[in-house]
Amino acid sequence: MLAYVFVALAVAMRFLPHSFGFTPVAASLLFFGARGAARRAWIPLVMLASSDVLLTLFWYKYPFTWDHFVTWAWYAAILWLGTQLRSTNSWLRIGGSSLAASISFFVVSNFAVWAAWNDMYPKTWQGLMTCYAAAVPFFRSAVTGDLFFTAVFFAAPFALKALSGIKAHGGQTAAH
Q1: What DSSP string runs through the chain?
Q2: Domains of the chain, CATH where assigned
Q3: Mean pLDDT within 134-153
Q4: Does the chain have fewer CB atoms within 10 Å around its N or its C terminus?
């Protein structure tokens, strides 16, 4: 259930004012892959792809281009990466997966923007490097957001379990 809540939160936050890149999208995909139902992995894909369409066409009023399909493939890849975390609670593996998500999104999405948008950057090596350089401030924010939300999401089940234990024992007093 928590996996669905985190995906819904990620979608909702995309429509709220936020620092570019500081969103729980990657964290929600990693968490869903790790803790969600594998046969329902299509749900976060549809939710995020639908929000992409709504944001692009109606919020930002940009044309819909093929680079969205690259982003959607990235969503699927991060869900798969999350499945590799199913049998672990290793903070090193979880943090490494979060960093891999950040870096891969930076590389893949900016390459797709450079390739898809003819009027933004020249189709040269220098144009590609300019595209990446322009995205560095967003990358910093994305890494911070991905690490923060991944830590919060993966810690949430432990925190909820601890809180439920406190609540269950809260009404009882020890015999003296």
Answers
A1: -HHHHHHHHHHHHHTS---TT-SSHHHHHHHHHHHS-GGGTHHHHHHHHHHHHHIIIIIS-PPP-THHHHHHHHHHHHHHHHHTTTT---HHHHHHHHHHHHHHHHHHHHHHHHHH-TTTS-SSHHHHHHHHHHHHHHHHHHHHHHHHHHHHHHHHHHHHHHHHHHHHHHT-----
A2: 2-169 (1.10.1760)
A3: 95
A4: C
